[in-house]
Amino acid sequence: MNNLVTLTKHNSIALIAVNSPPVNALSQQVRSELIECFTAAQKDDDVAGIILHCQGRTFIAGADITEFGKPPLSPDLNAVISTIEGNGKPVLAALHGTALGGGFEVAMACDYRLAERSAKVGLPEVLLGLIPGAGGTQRLPRLVGAIPALDIMVSGKPISASKAEAIGAVDKVVDDELVAAAIAYMERLLADNAPLRPVRNMSAEHVSEDSFSEYRRSIAKQARGYFAPERIIQAVQAAVSSSFDDGLAKERELFIECLKSPESEALRHLFFSERQAAKIPDINADTPTRTIKQVAVVGAGTMGGGIAMNFIQIGIPVRIVDISHEAIERGLATIRKNYERALSKGKMTEADIEKLMSLLIPTINYSDLSEVDLVIEAAFENMQIKKEIFRKLDGVCKQGAMLATNTSTLDVDEIAAVTQRPADVLGLHFFSPANVMRLLEVVRGEHTALDVLATAMKLSKKINKIGVMSGVCFGFIGNRMLHGYGREAGLMLLEGATPEQIDKLVYDFGFPMGPFAVSDLAGNDVGAKVREERAKDGFASKDERDNLISDKLYQLGRFGQKTAAGFYNYEDGARTPQPSPEVKALIAVEAQRLGIEQREIDTEEIITRCIYPLINEGARILEEGIALRASDIDLVWINGYGFPPYRGGPMFYADQIGLRKVYDTICRYRDTFGNEFGYWEPAPLLEKLALEGKSFAEYKK
Ligand code: T1G
Questions:
Q1: What is the domain extent for residue 381?
Q2: Which of 54, 156, 393, 514 is 20 to 30 Å apart from 593, CA to CA?
Q3: Are 394 and 491 members of one domain?
Q4: DSSP characters for 365-433?
Q5: For a substitution probing ligand 1, which of 23, 264, 279 has the most ligand atoms within 8 Å of its CB?
Q6: For the residues 90-111, what does the mean pLDDT come to?
Q7: What is the pLDDT of residue 285?
């Protein structure tokens, strides 16, 4: 087996280089060879100093996450750390790329740290439901102070090399070639007889219990439901109040707790799911992609403006099209307002705003789109309007231009069929607000060309979206599953639950908002208009109870926050929802009219009737091949609808509960509520896997 870690010498300086693509993760072989090389350098009397660096795109980016959840493999990372720190000779870490997690912990075991200006360092373990487990919670507070260390570990966000230098996590930032700079720096250290500086011997500044309590309060909202952030705080409390070794023991105890937590299992599932989603079976590295240098967005409304922002953010000019200059001006004003919010928070300057706005080219003439590489249609959710737009695009856009619709439900193949180029047509379904939500459903039409899909998946990463491939069906993956969730929430209103009761329980489950608060925020009119359009096309629900209250509110003009009344009341223009006596009365009247007996509905029923329809429909979507894998469905619901990441997504959550339990509950609801409309018909795939004792994760189509 070829070496992944090599030891060479430059005069009296040992150069230990890690070369383990793609990210120099600390696999068992890397750990073993690091110990071998550091031990050899220690024993070599000609070696006065040691430099640790990496080849490839980054310094060590962390422990090898693929090893988690399996029996531990020795040597463990702490053995590597001890070998470095106890070497007896000055050790310099030379950082480039992203020195993260165990990688940065290894760097902190060195005496000195040198970084390329473009390098970043961080301890993102919290994003995997973990805490740093190789001394990071004990060394970082000693280097930078307890509170700055907490900010780095609880946020999980990397910091720049210059920021790291400013707070003492890195000693020197260089613009020269890294290894040469490291050699020069080590020669200087040796010439100055610079001392060994084991971080473990530094003292961590004292921090009061009140400061930790204050810190807990400051992160309470972002840490809600998560397991690891509190354990990070406890580990740092140990760092400032115990000996290094006692603190290290405390860290170990807390790390094991986190590693075994269902939250960490869920978050590690999502880490790999995000990377898996980019892999499309019939698309590979050789699939060509198209160059996207100019984009057009048709429709300057809320969605169109948000979509345009994604592209100007990465320097791609966007022609923004609408039917009138006034409509475009309104759209541009909304975009500018979004940027001015960032300006007020100090995240942008006026110059930044002007630069971005200059990339927006307004036009009402389709003839101006003849040179664009990609058009994204974001017009009103009406098939005739969309077909008319695609006919025009087909007539003016150059050969090879990609034509995408942002439709959230309509048939992409039907839209493609009005063009002479269905191979260039696809769906790019953004989620509102389109400049914020990370999910992008890439909808593959029957005729969509492979290079168009490959381009779309590559582009999604460029605009910092999580691209998930979907087949064509009503609602694609997310909105198709959303229907059952909203339906059951609405039915429970008629049966005796209140909007605030359901919303509170869904919030406690981990969503940022419950279904009724979301509806009031997005606008009850949005869903009602989609249902109106569907009814025109003959797709009205056969169940008059389905979305009954939502439709009644729409008819009453209670659209939600924008009308200061929806499922809730919003007094004095406040955004805080207040229970509405008017809505309570409306529900009672409708329930009585329908002869629905009111009853107390318990937490278990409310949660399972909201969540299990997601799982059931997700199983159908998986079996039909609309989604390529169960983990793709998880990514859709976490990044498009706020499903709590620490539960892994609806399909992962179902696997953690056990599919048999989900299946039995669905059968019980079918037998209890009746199955006139098929609401509780178990999906065949769910039934099959449940009865075979299998999981969605094991399912391969
Ligand atoms: N272990 C194993 N594989 C990893 C990996 C890791 N740490 N990081 C990335 N990969 C794989 C990834 O699955 C993908 O594989 C390929 O590398 C390229 O990744 C003890 C316990 C470094 C910023 O959390 O943030 O250290 O799909 O597509 O967009 O305290 O990868 O090609 O087969 O993401 O350029 C802490 C996780 C671990 C960093 C590069 N470290 N990685 O992003 O490439 S826990 C992390 C990232 C730990 C210690 C604790 C990113 C990146 P494939 P990619 P990228």
A1: 295-470
A2: 514
A3: no
A4: -GGGGTT-SEEEE---S-HHHHHHHHHHHHHHSPTT-EEEE--SSS-HHHHHTTSS-GGGEEEEEE-SS
A5: 23
A6: 98
A7: 83
Ligand 1 pocket, residue 129 CB under 6 Å: no
| CA gap 306, 448 in Å, rounded | 25
CATH code of the domain in which 378 resides: 3.40.50.720
In a domain, 699, yes or no: no
Helices (H), 474-560: 478-495, 499-509, 515-522, 524-536, 548-555
**Residue written as tokens 């090879």?**
400
Q: What does DSSP assign to residue 447?
A: T
Terminal Cα distance for the chain, rounded: 35
Give me the mean pLDDT over the 153-164 stretch: 97
125 is catalytic: yes
- 605 is annotated as an active-site residue: no
Looking at the whole model, is its pTM more than 0.85? yes
- Any ligand 1 atom below 6 A from CB of 124: yes
The answer to whether the beta carbons of residues 70 and 27 sit under 8 Å apart is no
DSSP character for 67?
Answer: G
Nearest to 405 by CA among 387, 423, 420: 387
Per residue in 681-692, pLDDT (tens digit) is 999 999 999 999
Nearest-angstrom CA–CA distance, 214 and 220: 10
- 515-522 helix and 478-495 helix, angle to the nearest 10 degrees: 110
Could you give the C-alpha distances from 312 to 259, 450, 491, 637, in angstroms and in order? Answer: 40, 26, 43, 27
Identify which of 412, 373, 377 has the alpha carbon closest to the alpha carbon of residue 392. 377
Q: Is the pLDDT of residue 554 over 90?
A: yes
The one catalytic residue in 125, 495, 605, 617 is 125
81 and 217 inside one domain? yes
User: Does residue 381 carry a pLDDT above 90?
Assistant: no
61 CA → ligand 1 middle, Å: 6
User: Is residue 60 lining ligand 1, measured as CB closer than 6 Å?
Assistant: no
In a domain, 276, yes or no: no
Statement to judge: residues 237 and 347 lie in one domain: no
Mind listing the pLDDT tens digit for each residue in 582-639? 999 999 999 999 999 999 999 999 999 999 999 999 999 999 999 999 999 999 999 9
Around 627, how many Cα atoms within 13 Å sit in the side-chain half-sphere? Answer: 32
466 within ligand 1 shell (Cβ under 6 A): no
How many Å lie between the centroid of ligand 1 and the Cα of residue 647?
Answer: 21
Ligand 1 contact, 135 CB (< 6 A): no
